[in-house]
Amino acid sequence: MPELTLADVDALAAEAHAGQVDKIGAPYVEHVRAVAAGLAPFGTGLQMAALLHDVLEDTPLTADDLLRAGVPFGVVATVRRVTRVSGVAYGAMLEQIATDHSATLVKIADNAHNSVAERAARLDEADRRRLADRYRAARRVLWPAAAPADVRTIVGIVNPALLDELG
Fold first, then answer.
1. Is 57 helix (H, G, I), strand (E, B) or coil?
2. What is the 3 state secondary structure string of 122-144?
3. CA 70 to CA 167: how far, in whole Å?
4. Hey, which of 11, 22, 81, 111 would disulfide with 103, CB 3.0 to 4.6 Å?
5. pLDDT tens, 60-119?
6. What integer pLDDT is reported at residue 79 of this predicted model?
7. 10 Å Cβ neighbour count for 25?
8. How would residue 121 be classed by pLDDT, with cut points 50, 70 and 90?
9. What is the DSSP-derived secondary structure letter of residue 59?
10. Under DSSP, is residue 21 helix (H, G, I), strand (E, B) or coil?
11. Looking at residue 46, what is its pLDDT?
12. Residue ranges in 17-100 assigned as alpha helix (H)
């Protein structure tokens, strides 16, 4: 089977998320593409994982489906690491993600995009506050697990407003 290109994986993600919208009503594929853009300096594999980071959680696709489609094993492994598992608390999931470099970088980019102020402003006040607290707490786990230069690179692309928090 020929190796998939980044464009192939983008098309797979777009098809998987077709018709889905995020919390603010935007097409869901825009979110995964923004996360992938933040990982461009780190190579195609991480961009692929970013494009697919929510497919196992939010679509009928399985890890086996991704492998059968030709998604590289390492990419699927990263996607699995960032996928919520029933019965595992969010904090415990973050601690597990923080043990894996690739998963950590994907989750940092995901968190940065979920924290974009212009996006959050479209949520009701209670959700905005709850999610801001959740994402801030996640950054306290994720950011120390990566090289500061890597965090700065991702945040600078995805959500430069967070650079002040980075220090």
1. helix
2. CCCHHHHHHHHHHHHHHHHHHHH
3. 40
4. 81
5. 999 999 999 999 999 999 999 999 999 999 999 999 999 999 999 999 999 999 999 888
6. 98
7. 7
8. confident
9. S
10. strand
11. 98
12. 28-38, 44-51, 55-58, 63-68, 73-81, 90-97
Query: Tokens 């959050």 label which residue?
Result: 120
Mean pLDDT of the chain: 94
Tokens of 30: 């825009």
Q: Provide, for the chain, the percentages of residues in helix, strand and coil under a 3-state DSSP scheme, each rounded to the nearest 5.
A: 70, 0, 30
Please list, in sequence order, all residues whose beta carbon lies within 8 angstroms of the beta carbon of residue 118, skipping any fewer than 6 positions away: none
Is the Cα torsion angle 121, 48, 144, 142 positive or negative in sign? Answer: positive
**Residue 2 pLDDT class (50, 70, 90 cuts):** low
* 153/14 Cα distance (integer angstroms): 25
Rounded to an integer, what distance in angstroms lies between the CA atom of residue 66 and that of residue 9? 10
With 80 as the cut, is the pLDDT of residue 8 above it?
Answer: yes
How far apart CA 153 and CA 109 sit, in angstroms, is 10
d(CA 94, CA 114): 15
Residue partners of 80: CB distance under 8 A and separation at least 6: 56, 63
